């Protein structure tokens, strides 16, 4: 058996060699697992080189701690990559086609994606003014209120009693919302875009 130790900066490199037949593997369970765990607990590592038929050697070595050393080194790399990407986007912007004029009206017949069609159609069928307030504003406020109800419903109805009146009311609200969305989505795709 041969044990060598050398100091490198603030770390210690220890090498242990013997004349065994080889084949030692820490993954199969042995005293090497305990040695590896102790080395890792101290911020180091253990390398085992033991091919069958050759001499075995174990080399514990100190590794870089994740925080702050590795984290900061990795952060610098990501920030450099982000800086290069931002510079390329600023100096060589990709043209996606003719630039849109925000003061022009939307093209006739334009339709949103299917998941926005019910809201789009709702805003389209609302009158321009309702009780002196713009119809589109009331529609957007209505969508916001419905969204708040959907987000808050699990917090308001915490009991898991099936058949309770509040549970049935929540289920009825959900079914009504789904039916409304399906009908308005269907109308959005089948009605004339100019009406």
Task: Give an overview of the whole structure.
- Helix 3 packs across helix 4 and helix 3 packs across helix 5.
- The longest helix has 26 residues.
- It contains five helices and six strands, in the order ββαββααββαα.
- Helix content is 48%, strand content 15%.
- With 195 residues, it is an alpha+beta fold.
- It folds into three domains: 61 residues, Heat Shock Protein 90, CATH 3.30.565.10; 30 residues; 77 residues, Helix Hairpins (Orthogonal Bundle), CATH 1.10.287.
- The chain is elongated, with a radius of gyration of 34 Å.
- The strands form two sheets. It has a four-stranded antiparallel β-sheet, with helices on one face. Strands 5-6 form a two-stranded antiparallel ribbon.
What topology emerges from the helices and strands here?
Layout: E1 2-8, E2 11-17, H1 31-41, E3 44-49, E4 57-62, H2 66-91, H3 117-125, E5 129-130, E6 133-134, H4 135-156, H5 165-190
Antiparallel strand pairs: 1-2, 2-4, 3-4, 5-6
Helix pairs in contact: 3-4, 3-5
- How many alpha or pi helices? 5
Taking all residues together, what is the mean pLDDT? 80
How many domains? The number is: 3
Rounded to the nearest angstrom, the distance between the terminal CA atoms is 92 Å
The value of Rg in angstroms is 34 Å
Task: Compose a concise summary of this entry.
This protein is α+β, with helices and mostly antiparallel strands. It has three domains: 2-62, Histidine kinase-like ATPase, C-terminal domain (Heat Shock Protein 90); 65-94; 114-190, Helix Hairpins (Orthogonal Bundle). The protein has helices at 31-41, 66-91, 117-125, 135-156, 165-190; strands at 2-8, 11-17, 44-49, 57-62, 129-130, 133-134.
């Amino acid at each position: 058996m041969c044990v060598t130790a050398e100091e490198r900066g603030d770390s210690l490199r220890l090498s242990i060699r013997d004349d065994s037949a080889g084949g030692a593997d820490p993954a199969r369970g042995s005293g090497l697992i305990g040695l590896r765990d102790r080395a890792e607990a101290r911020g180091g590592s253990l390398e085992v080189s033991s091919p069958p038929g050759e001499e075995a050697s174990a080399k514990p070595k100190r590794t870089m701690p994740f925080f702050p050393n590795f984290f900061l080194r990795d952060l610098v790399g990501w920030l450099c990559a982000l800086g290069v990407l931002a510079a390329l986007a600023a100096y060589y912007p990709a043209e996606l086609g003719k630039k849109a004029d925000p003061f022009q009206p939307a093209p006739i017949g334009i339709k949103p994606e299917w998941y926005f069609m019910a809201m789009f159609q709702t805003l389209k069928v609302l009158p321009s003014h309702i009780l002196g307030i713009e119809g589109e504003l009331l529609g957007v406020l209505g969508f916001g209120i419905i969204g708040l109800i959907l987000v808050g419903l699990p917090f308001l109805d915490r009991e898991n009693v099936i058949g309770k009146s509040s549970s049935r009311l929540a289920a009825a609200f959900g079914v009504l919302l789904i039916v409304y969305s399906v009908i308005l989505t269907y109308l959005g795709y089948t009605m004339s875009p100019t009406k």
